[in-house]
């Protein structure tokens, strides 16, 4: 009510100032009024105007209307201001709610974008933020946030990172409310909680599922060194790696170095002979031999520097100096590499096409 009164008063004062005393002249019902001539001249009648001159009632109505419009405008501004303050209060409350959940603080952008976090929080009830259900994406976020982030582990293996990006859904794919139970099928949810996944191979029309189940996680969840893959943990891969000269049991350091060097030297000269700029010349085999020997020399020097600085003790015998076995292996690697490259050069020279 004070807004209306103040606005009306201001409008009345402004109108009086603009139009002066003539604003309060009231004329009858359209009748002509006599005009007294100056200096005794003949009087004339001035015809009344088609509209009545604004009187006190009209002035009051005008002021009240203007005041009402001004008050309405100020009321709209006040409502808008209150709504804005309410929104700011909700934002502050949401920030305080987030601050009360420890794992939601300082989540790296490389892990998850802000929009995705907001979408995940929107689909999860507030009372479940601290301990989200295992079937929700927020539970997956909590597991990664407890391991990685500011003040925690900062190094993540490529397989862990790829798995995290696959597990974390896109904001446009998130389902809200009661539909969260349908985000994954019951079978897929059980497999993921057990660290298993259907084995599929890429094909022309997408992924072809073989029907086999692969256990991609070890006994301890979210441990980077416990990730299992068919390449590193299958029986064939383990037997193949165990049969290599570097890991095979029962060999002396010089035997390991000689075998590794011969294998590398034998195959090193092939690309230079077949793909080098002199591949179509009689000197191709000689150029390949020189390039292969140069690479063997570079690798051997690097191995000696590694052994002298890092000092690995894998091949040391009791009583030896640190890295004695490793350095012995590198020395014989150089001998085997040069011998393998020379043997390949001899074969190319004798049996190669002229």
Report on this structure.
- The chain has helices at residues 2-19, 56-99, 114-122, 137-147, 158-167, 186-193, 230-233, 235-242, 253-275, 284-309, 324-351, and strands spanning 33-35, 44-46, 196-203, 206-215.
- Helix content is 53%, strand content 7%.
- The longest helix has 44 residues, at 56-99.
- Strand 3 (196-203) and strand 4 (206-215) form a beta hairpin.
- It folds into four domains: 1-22 and 52-100; 107-183, no CATH class; 195-243, no CATH class; 253-351, Photosystem I PsaL, reaction centre subunit XI (Photosystem 1 Reaction Centre Subunit Xi, Chain: L, Up-down Bundle).
- The chain has a two-stranded antiparallel ribbon with strand order 1-2.
- By secondary structure, it is mostly helical.
- It has eleven helices and four strands, in the order αββαααααββααααα.
């Amino acid at each position: 009510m004070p807004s209306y009164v103040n606005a009306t008063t201001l409008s009345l004062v402004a109108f009086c100032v603009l139009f002066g005393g003539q604003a309060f002249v009231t004329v009858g019902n359209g009748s002509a009024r006599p005009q007294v001539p100056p200096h005794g001249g003949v009087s004339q009648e001035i015809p009344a105007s088609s509209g009545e001159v604004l009187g006190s009632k009209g002035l009051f109505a005008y002021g009240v209307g203007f005041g009402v419009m001004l008050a309405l405008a100020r009321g709209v501004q006040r409502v808008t201001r209150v709504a804005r303050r309410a929104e700011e209060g909700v934002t502050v409350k949401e920030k305080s709610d987030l601050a009360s959940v420890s794992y939601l603080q300082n989540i790296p952008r490389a892990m998850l974008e802000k929009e995705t976090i907001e979408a995940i929080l929107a689909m999860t009830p507030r009372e479940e933020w601290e301990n989200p259900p295992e079937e929700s994406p927020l539970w997956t976020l909590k597991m990664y946030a407890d391991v990685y982030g500011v003040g925690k582990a900062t190094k993540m293996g490529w397989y862990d990172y790829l798995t995290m990006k696959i597990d974390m859904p896109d904001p446009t794919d998130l389902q809200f409310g009661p539909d969260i139970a349908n985000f994954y099928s019951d079978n897929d949810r059980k497999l993921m909680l057990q660290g298993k996944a259907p084995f599929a191979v890429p094909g022309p029309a997408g992924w072809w599922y073989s029907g086999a189940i692969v256990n991609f996680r070890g006994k301890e969840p979210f441990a980077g060194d416990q990730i299992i893959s068919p390449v590193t943990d299958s029986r064939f891969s383990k037997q193949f790696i165990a049969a290599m000269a570097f890991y095979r049991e029962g060999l002396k350091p010089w035997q390991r170095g000689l075998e590794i060097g011969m294998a590398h030297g034998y195959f090193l000269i092939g690309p230079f002979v077949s793909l080098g700029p002199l591949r179509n010349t009689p000197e191709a085999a000689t150029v390949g031999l020189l390039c292969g020997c140069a690479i063997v020399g570079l690798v051997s020097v690097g191995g000696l520097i590694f052994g002298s600085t890092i000092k690995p003790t894998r091949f040391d015998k009791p009583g030896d100096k640190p890295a004695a076995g490793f350095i012995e292996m590198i020395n014989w690697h150089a001998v085997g590499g040069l011998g393998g490259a020379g043997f390949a050069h001899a074969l190319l020279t004798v049996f190669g096409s002229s």
